[in-house]
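Standup notes
- DV: blocked on the single-chain target, sequence here:
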Amino acid sequence: MRTLWLIAKGLEGLGMVIVLIGLVMSINLGFQEEGLKSMAYEGYALLIGGGIFLAGMLLERRIGAR
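- DV (later): unblocked, structure below
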């Protein structure tokens, strides 16, 4: 049970890190006047990171920790 909880928390953390990296890349590209490209990075990071975070959250709920 504890192992699954650690995996769930790891997935949640990984998802947030991916979103943060995408946001930083988006900001850097925005400063270089590449607006559309920066929005693409931000969108992909939100989609992928959010999906991983959601998987961790659902796993945590499934084991009854939340």
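- Follow-up: Helices lie at 2-31, 35-62.
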